[in-house]
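Q: Got a minute? One more chain.
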Amino acid sequence: MQRISLRLLRSSSSAAASTTSSSLVAWQYPAAVGPPDRRCSLRRHFIIPLWKGSGYTTMFMQVQMPYMIFTGLEDYKARGTQASPYYTVTHYTEFAETKDTVLIRGDVVFTSKLTDSEAKTLLETAHSFYVNDVRYRLVERFNKETHDFEFGDVLQVLDMPTM
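A: Always. Here it is, folded:
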């Protein structure tokens, strides 16, 4: 599996009732793969389990590069496009071709629903599904062959137990 490196450059919390936090990271991606722009533009949705305590919560991801939006799957089911995002991510690709680096700003919108550490894990996991060919097949199946998609396959590639 190709390794993705996210390096924290800066992190801050909002003084306004501590409801948001931001971080800026540099993403060093494998040169052979390149940034996931093309794959993301073709397959814009996916679900990712996020380990929390003694189980996991399922996050729904919407991608329209350079943006990624994450919300809880249950919130998305209940509110659809009106569901509030838990975490928003913006990719800055100005250095992608010359430095093989993408700068990423992530904003945790609801710190009561998602910690900074969980947000970093979520972003790393999301990227892994777009740069790893085996994992990307699950993203393709979720978007193109929905009737063949099994969430258990996602849990298996992430070495997470089925609940």
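A: The first helix runs from residue 37 to 42.
Q: Perfect, thanks.
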